[in-house]
């Protein structure tokens, strides 16, 4: 893990004081545990198979830290911090945004899963994503595989955090929003307009060639980058909060890659 990325993460981690009367065994270094979490995210390896010789601790130790840090809001704060730095570097374009979703199979079921209409009714989940004009992820939502895309359009808009990084009002709403035919509904067009956003939703029953794909492709690329992490191609976690912690961490890592490339 880059020293620069660790310098941003370390201040966000909660401090766990030791009990002087019962100090017990010393906690494993947080940076090593985070490397173990990233190793699982990148490779998709099962927690119990995490190699001990790497020095990342046991899989259960990494799982507990992932859970605790997620409950403390570390991953969301990291994502917002990196978005602010991207804005400060003039790498965010809020003139437009795009939304889309992708289905993944949920091997063990659990909350935020449902029978998939595209996978013979097997249990699955959906990753709903909203990105800005360059394809940088602004927010993500995890739902069951049978949840309609259009139902998450407004929650996605509301999930975009206030992005600072420059003087003045933080960015929160794009000017235009692009989506495919799965979001075609007049009621939701009106709801989007209430956020002072101009909707560009492809209409059902019309031929291709609307030109909206020129702006929509960035969200498909963002989903492909997110699913480059092997742990996010198939959902193995029963707990939806653990799976969504991986999703948020994946979005943050992708933001860091964009920022690091620009700063080099």
How would you characterize this protein structure?
The protein has 264 residues and is α/β, with parallel strands linked by helices. It has a domain at 93-236: Ribonuclease H-like superfamily/Ribonuclease H (Nucleotidyltransferase, domain 5), CATH 3.30.420.10. Helix content is 39%, strand content 16%. It has eight helices and seven strands. β3 and β4 (137-144) form a beta hairpin.
- Listing every helix as H and every strand as E from the N terminus to the C terminus, the arrangement reads HHHHEEEEHEHEHEH
Q: Radius of gyration in whole Å, from Cα?
A: 20 Å
Report how far the terminal alpha carbons are from each other: 16 Å
CATH topology term of the domain at 93-236: Nucleotidyltransferase, domain 5
Helix content, binned percent: 25-40%
Per DSSP, the total helix count is 8
By CATH, the architecture of the domain at 93-236 is named 2-Layer Sandwich
């Amino acid at each position: 893990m880059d020293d620069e990325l660790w310098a941003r993460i370390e201040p966000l981690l909660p401090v766990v004081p030791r009990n002087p009367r019962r100090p017990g065994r010393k906690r494993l270094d947080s940076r090593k545990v985070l490397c173990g979490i990233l190793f699982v995210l990148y490779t998709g390896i099962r927690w119990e198979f995490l190699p001990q010789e790497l020095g990342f601790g046991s899989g259960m130790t990494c799982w507990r830290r992932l859970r605790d840090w997620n409950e403390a809001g570390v991953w969301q704060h990291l994502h917002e911090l990196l978005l602010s730095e991207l804005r400060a570097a003039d790498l965010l374009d809020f003139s437009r945004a795009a939304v889309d979703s992708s289905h993944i199979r949920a091997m063990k079921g659990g909350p935020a899963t449902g029978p998939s209409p595209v996978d013979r009714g097997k249990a699955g989940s959906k990753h709903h994503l909203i990105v800005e004009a360059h394809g940088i992820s602004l927010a993500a939502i995890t739902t069951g595989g049978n949840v309609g895309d259009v139902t998450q359009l407004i929650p996605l808009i509301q999930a975009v955090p206030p992005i600072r990084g420059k003087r003045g009002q933080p960015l929160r709403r794009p000017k235009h929003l692009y989506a495919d035919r799965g979001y075609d509904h007049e009621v939701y067009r009106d709801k989007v307009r209430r956020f002072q956003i101009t909707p560009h939703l492809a209409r059902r029953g019309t031929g291709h060639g609307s030109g909206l794909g020129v702006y929509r492709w960035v969200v498909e690329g963002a989903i492909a980058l997110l699913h480059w992490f092997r742990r996010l191609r198939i959902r193995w976690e029963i707990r939806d909060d653990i799976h969504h912690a991986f999703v948020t961490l994946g979005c943050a890592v992708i933001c860091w890659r964009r920022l690091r490339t620009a700063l080099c």
